[in-house]
What we know:
It is a single chain. The chain is α+β, with helices and mostly antiparallel strands. It has helices spanning 66-78, 96-110, and strands at residues 4-9, 18-21, 24-27, 36-43, 48-55. The protein has a three-stranded antiparallel β-sheet, covered by helices on one side. A two-stranded antiparallel ribbon has the order 2-3. The chain is flat and about 50 Å long.
Amino acid sequence: xxxxxxxxxxxxxxxxxxxxxxxxxxxxxxxxxxxxxxxxxxxxxxxxxxxxxxxxxxxxxxxxxxxxxxxxxxxxxxxxxxxxxxxxxxxxxxxxxxxxxxxxxxxxxxxx
Length: 112
């Protein structure tokens, strides 16, 4: 593959415990300080594309009252925030398939 891929955190530096391995961004032992918007940007001779992913680490609905859980779900829907369900202590954040799809769409636009 002849493309350049980079990960960054838009609102802060990447966490010290984050590992960029090829196309993957791995964040071990997720915690609330990892909350933020992460951008994966890919570029090649055709052009570039990026995708932003908002990571919100929370204690889970099990620690909330029923009323708070429902209110949180409603707020997330109303604000159109996509929630990526990750198990507690998830070993990685790897949305590369979404970026690959976007790159394919962009490349297809530029092909005769």
